[in-house]
Structure formats: structure tokens, C-alpha cells
Amino acid sequence: MKFKNLIGAGLICAIILIVPQFLHGYPMTVVNVALLFAITSYGISVMLGMGGQLSFAAVTFMGLGAYFVANTTTGRLGITIPTMLALVLTPIVFAGVAFLVGLVLLKLKGTYFTFATIALVQVAFTFFNNYSPLFGGPDGISGIPTLTFFDHSFRSSGSSNEWFYFISISVVLVAIVVERIRRSQLGRALASIRDNETAALTFGINTYLTKVIAFSIAGAFASFSGALWVMHGRFVGADMFNFLNAAQFIIMAMLGGVNSTVGIVIGALLVTGLPELFRAFQGYMQLFWGVAIIALMVFMPTGLAGIKDMIVEKIRKYKVCASRREGDADATDS
């Protein structure tokens, strides 16, 4: 396993170094945005993949993080803080907000909880789009300062390579945190809740508090993504945080593999990049994603990451069958 981890780390470093050599301008911007969306989708992986709780609230916490940075770094509310401090504070603040919201919403179970998160998205979008003092109303908020990291200000253009390196490192760090959670006591508790909540209760797991903690982690990831996204684009508007985009984040997680750390990134790149490649068919993209998700759920419930598992399983079965045939041949010869 250590050797595999080293190989994986080497491949990730190689990709991070090679991609900027081939992509420039707008294509690099698309990749940067896709990686930011992957951070939000990791929160969905914690909620849905580990805990079995379908939540659409990620887009709302992404919006809250974006507007928090927009307000605190531009001085709209009478205070101005450095962009790096705002970036650090955002996941901390909204992990707490998500915890409080989760205490209310997770009193509901199953589809009732899911519909409650949909209602949360609609209510938040209404505020984002209409309450100008905090959210700028339909015009949004512009002129947001770019990220300043230890006296180094990132270029205003979101297509710059330095943005790619910083976002890539952020994605890797979040992915490591997700993997640690998956292998921790919290991850095992969430998996037991996902598989059988009644059985989890009999083993002494506080299922309610465990789900609230997972909701808080998802909120922290989404708000962090929103904070980076708004510094990257230097503008925030309500249109980004509607129900349609909430569904897009679910598709990213499910397409790549909701329990696959690498698959989440692949799903985000596909869902973000394919519409740019097929602009002529933009009006049919929602139809395409709908059909793709139905096909995945029927033929490959674990997403694209399931392809690797299927190949590994077939190789394992082939080796077992081959070893049995060799054993039978040796027995016959003897």
C-alpha cells in the first residue's frame, strides 16, 4: 500500500507540473474552476458517500463563503480584512453555521432531509438575489481583491498558472483530509449509519450527532471552495448558487464515484469541461447528464471509479481460476 501511495503521489505531482505547460488562457480557467468545484464535491462525498445522506446544501454554503469573503475584503460592511485571513476564517465560521443548521435539518430523515436541503437552497438563493445590503442583489458584488499569500498577490487573471498550483495543492490537502476521515472512527460510524442506521444505534453510535458533524465538514469544504472561487473570479452573483448548480455538484460526485477520492476530481473536470467542449449542444447538456446518471445508477452505481474496481475484480478472478487450473493439472500429473 505504501508503494501504491508513492506511485499515486508521483502521478499527482507529475500532472500538476505538466498541465500548465499545455493549457493557457481560458482553458486553464476552466480547469481551475473545475478543481474548485471538486472541493465542494468532496463535502458531498462525506455526506452521501460515507453517510448515505443526500444533501443539496453544498451550493448554499459555497455561496455563503463567497459572499463572506466579498463583504469582508472589500469593506462593504465597514471593515476590511486581508484576503488570506478571510480564506482561513471562512471554513471555520461556516463549519459552525453548518453545525447549527444541521442540528435543525437532521432532525428529519431520508427524503424529508433531502427536501429540506432543497428548500434551504431556494431560500438562500432568494436572499442572495434580492437582499442588496449583504449580497449585492441581482448585480452581485464586483471588485473583490485577489488572494494575497505572504505578501505575494496572485494575478487578477484566473487563468494564471500560479492559481492552478495553489488550487491543486488545496484540492490535494482536502483529498487527504477526506481519506483520513474515511479511515477514522467518524468515517466508520458514518458507513455504519449508511448501511443500517438501526444497527448503528445498537452499537452505541450517536447517529444524529455523527450526521451533524458530517454536515459541518461538508459546509466547511463548500465555503472554502466558495472563498477561493470568489477571489479567483473577483466577482460573485446569485446565479451561481441556484438549484440547477446544486444538482450539478451531486452529478460531479456521482459521476466520478461518490466514494472515490480521485473520482471526485474526474467527475468535476468532466461536468465542468464537457459543456465547454460541446458549446453547440449547450441546450441538451442537462438531458445528457440526466441520461448519464440514469445509466450509471443502473449499470455502474459506483460511478466511473467502478470501472477500475471491475477490472481489478476480473483480474483477481482470472488469477484464482488460473491457479486452480494449475493445481488440478498438477494433481492429474501426480
Can you describe this structure in just a few lines?
With 334 residues, the protein is mainly alpha-helical.
Order of helices and strands: HHHHHHEEEHHHHEHHHH
What composes the largest sheet? Answer: 2 strands, antiparallel
Indicate the low-confidence ranges by residue numbers: none
Radius of gyration, in angstroms, nearest whole number: 22 Å
**Whole-Å distance between the termini?**
38 Å
Strand line-up in the sheet with most strands:
1-4
Q: What best-fitting shape do the alpha-carbon axes yield? A: globular
Q: Briefly note the structural class of the backbone.
A: mainly alpha
DSSP strand (E) fraction?
under 5%
- The number of distinct helices, counting runs of at least 4 residues, comes to 14
Average pLDDT rating: 85
What's the number of structural domains?
2
The helicity comes to over 70%
- How many beta-strand runs? 4
Describe the fold and architecture.
This protein is mainly α and 334 residues long. The protein has two domains: 23-302, no CATH class; 310-334. Helix content is 75%, strand content 2%. It has 14 helices and four strands. The strands form two sheets. Strands 1-4 form a two-stranded antiparallel sheet. Strands 2-3 form a two-stranded antiparallel sheet. The radius of gyration is 22 Å and the shape is globular. The two termini are 38 Å apart. The relative contact order is 0.16. The mean pLDDT is 85.
